[in-house]
């Protein structure tokens, strides 16, 4: 039953949600890119994915050529909420001359000798106090008011999801520091060492025309797990949903003047049928729906129920609750779900024929004439195997299929494969014509190379 619930959750996720989920399962990181004009929408979408889908905190690092290491460290840390102060218990106060603290209702419960000794001290305490100068009284520590305890120091931690926007424009030192953060899951500051939380994901948010054009420094680029290019025509699900929700709230939340409601009640009822509302699942205008008729606020003592749609009438100073906040909704995917999928991926069986198919794809990629030497590193092979198992777990399978291998190859090698320059193409050493080689490699993208290899390698039956 739990596996069926997880499979149902997975089917409801979008492409960007799935890319983040795959990285969280494998404790890896990814590159997400789109057209440069839609980079703001992609960043907002990733923030909503982190908060709504997984319930994780996020931090955006806007990288520029002038970004320093201190800027990076300051941007990836978020402030932890201060704990609520503990209530102070009141001290027991006893009136002078009352029963002893250790006494009972029936008697004092102490010996007469001790009782007479206490009465003597009480008698002495009734003496008038000695006269002291005002300066001596002010200097007495018993008369000083107690100061409140100092507030606890502000604490910071690294966010669960770091969105490194335009990371390719950052200096090489900043990119190397990001690589160190990905590998060791910690970062060194001037005063301490900050460790990453258990659920940690670094996303390079880049603007490019395709997944193969999103590039970083060599070692950082190879260390990223997968890459995903979001087509703007496919939209951004969470951003579009939030925008439709804002439009619905603007149409629905109408503030009425209590003094003019009685005079305009007839006119408002007559115009209510002409209100057109947009549904969340439709792009255009839906069927006209009568708007709710405003009601007058009643006195709290009358006991009459006030409709929820009349919040603006009964209390205009209190805004409605924010339904898009992370505190008002539970995450769609919990940490337990991610741990379960990770365990299922480790238990996935990969047949020997499927393993041979993976190795053939890797060999054909390295020997392809359009691939630059060294652009298919060994770490990509490790990621390739892990992604095939994770995809099988997401599809509810306990074994890997050739189709999953093809899907994993497209996500693993799109950002790694580098097209060789025509001058260094291997056939040039045997006297090939440079113009012919340039014409052959013209407009060849890494995605084209991967598709070419997948078409050449025989698929196991």
Automatic annotation (TrEMBL):
Residues 125-145 have a biased composition (Low complexity). Gene3D superfamilies: Magnesium chelatase subunit I, C-Terminal domain. It comes from the Eukaryota. Pathway: Porphyrin-containing compound metabolism. Residues 112-154, 258-306 are annotated as: Disordered. Its EC number is 6.6.1.1. It comes from Xylaria multiplex. This is magnesium chelatase. One of its GO terms (molecular function) is magnesium chelatase activity. Pfam families: AAA_lid_2 (PF17863). Residues 376-422 form the ChlI/MoxR AAA lid domain. InterPro entries: ChlI/MoxR_AAA_lid (IPR041628), Nucleic_acid_metab_PIN/TRAM (IPR052041). It is an enzyme of class 6 (ligase). Transmembrane segments: none annotated.
